[in-house]
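Record format v2
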Amino acid sequence: MKRKKLKPEFFRRENVLQVARELLGKILVSKREGVITAGRIVEVEAYKGVTDKASHAYGGRRTRRTEVMYARGGVAYVYLCYGIHHLFNVVTNEKEIPHAILVRALEPLEGLETMLARTGKKKAGYSLTRGPGNVSKALGISTQHSGYSLQSAELYIAEDGYRFGKNRMRSSPRIGVDYAGGDAKRPYRFYLQGNPFVSGKNN
DNA sequence: CGACCGATCGTCT
DNA sequence: GACGATCGGTCGA
């Protein structure tokens, strides 16, 4: 089946956990200077806005960086982590409700050579698009794209009819959010069991 | 393998 | 002035 761009309505739904689960198996596409790089989404994390201590928008926190999280769903939220890594998120829900989904891993589909060039890797191993920092690097996504519409031709998410068994989807606590107290235990991470591009030791 | 550590900088206090 | 929603290299078992 041909790739079909997801519409804004997909992202504007209320249940960020549901949207996150449905993002598994979809395709993240980036186009830079005419070159397409794309990969199937195999790992995501949901961040549930003002009530979620792990979210940048916890407690209604509103800064220049996080402002884009309060936009209507269907735009990118990209921020710099540890001064090095650009982490790509999808903003969901309606305006003023700062829900977001972090894309943590892709299975590369298109533009392998370009991904290798961007990351400086020699071989297309599993680490090429494993982990949120690597995803952005391989697809050429940076903080410049924060606020970018996912309806654009340069950055969007598509479906192609790919299906996976219900039992292949797993959930777990999110990675690296120990500071969030009890919220760190919420099972807001979703991934495809057994996919080698998924981060973590043993899926 | 696992544990540890340095890199590196925009953002917020 | 401190701190990350990380990564990759090194070191030791």
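Chain A is about 15% helix and 30% strand.
The domain at 4-192 of chain A is CATH 3.10.300.10 (3-methyladenine DNA Glycosylase; Chain A).
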